[in-house]
Amino acid sequence: MDTYTVHRPDEAAVRRILERHPYDAAGMIFRLAWLAGLMRNEIVSLRWGAVNFLNQEIELPDRSVPLCPELEQYLARISERMDWGSDYVLLSDRLHKPMQPQPVSRIVRQELDAEGQTAVRLIDLRHDFIIRQLLQHDWQYVSRITGVEAVTLGQHFAAYLPAGRVSTKIQAERPPEVDELRLWRLLHEEGTSVAGAALQLTWQAGLTLEEIAALTWDQVDLTGKTLRLTPKKTLPIADALVPILERLRAEAADPADPVIRSPRSHAPMRPDRISRVARAALIRAGMDDLTIRDLRRDYALRAGGETRILQYVREHGFITRNALMDLFGISKTTAYQRLAALTARGRLTRVGARYYLPTEVVPPEEQYRVIREYLLAEGPAYRQDIARLLHIAPKQCTVILKHLVDEGKLRRENYRYTLREA
């Protein structure tokens, strides 16, 4: 079978184009095509709401494309620099309005011709992105982020695949990080299905497939929130897992019934069958690089990681996202998700960019009440007085006090703060 001819651009030529166009339409087109592999229709229809800086990805209707650091920084600069009242990412230079597909192709053609890249087209920028990804990742990952099916990859990009064909093996250099936000969405959609329950028991309790298949309701104590796997092994039930188990328990007729049963026959399910069902759900959700083993590993990291995080806060007074990234060697997004989860469970309290133990700081929703009561009792106070009152740093206190002044709740005179109502 003949391979598809790809006219790969000269990287130095593309770099020169990017340097010439730091903030205009040509620069945006080339970056979205070459650094994210977007097609022409995707470039012209892309809106800022689809650029997820928190998860570091572009969310398209059929896939999510990760933002490389270069593209992430560029889009962040553009989003701050240009505000012409349009939600479209690509706007024309003269009218500042969304562009049509034809001018996009013409702009690319002109720039490539100027660099002597006469055989290269807009689609070749996307193809070059696909090739670069295939040289770094397994084909499943590349298929997921580009939307190119495995058969097409085998036909058009065989030269860049191991042994010239699509491999069925995933050889990751290190275990993938769990995208907690995406996983939570999947768990919400699956609910009490076999896949949903199995993934919950793995990720929230660390159970193996064998333990999940053998688990019966007489081992589940919903009141005490524990799972008694053996006389010597009892595990806590996470709060997020309780409602799922309660709904499943309402459908069970006998305490000896298995927690997970076949949807049709209500018979116990073998571990391999549970694994296939759970794996299929992960693939449908675009998390085909994750396995049940990865979720168990993530549970172990979180279970031990929480202790380390709380110990760090006790020793240093607070923790920041950057500090957590350094502590565990994790990404910015994962660090944010870990801290957000601890905050949601009441283990930490967030004040600005810092996270404190709840007993050591006044939570944001109580700050004005505490300040008001203090000023009513003590009279005018300096910033350092209020910082000590809230148990936070003076710099953080400055931001809080400014907001209260702007809202008309406080008055500042000669570095002292009083109640505006007084």
SSE inventory with pairings:
Layout: H1 11-20, H2 25-36, H3 40-45, E1 51-52, E2 57-59, E3 64-66, H4 69-81, H5 101-114, H6 122-134, H7 139-146, H8 150-156, H9 180-190, H10 194-205, H11 209-214, E4 220-221, E5 226-230, E6 233-236, H12 242-251, H13 271-284, H14 292-316, E7 319-320, H15 321-328, H16 332-344, E8 349-351, E9 354-356, H17 364-378, E10 381-382, H18 383-390, H19 394-406, E11 410-413, E12 416-419
Antiparallel strand pairs: 1-2, 2-3, 4-5, 5-6, 7-9, 8-9, 10-12, 11-12
Helix pairs in contact: 1-2, 2-6, 9-10, 10-13, 10-14, 15-16, 18-19
Describe, in short, the structure shown.
The protein is mainly α and 422 residues long. Helices cover 52% and strands 9% of the residues.
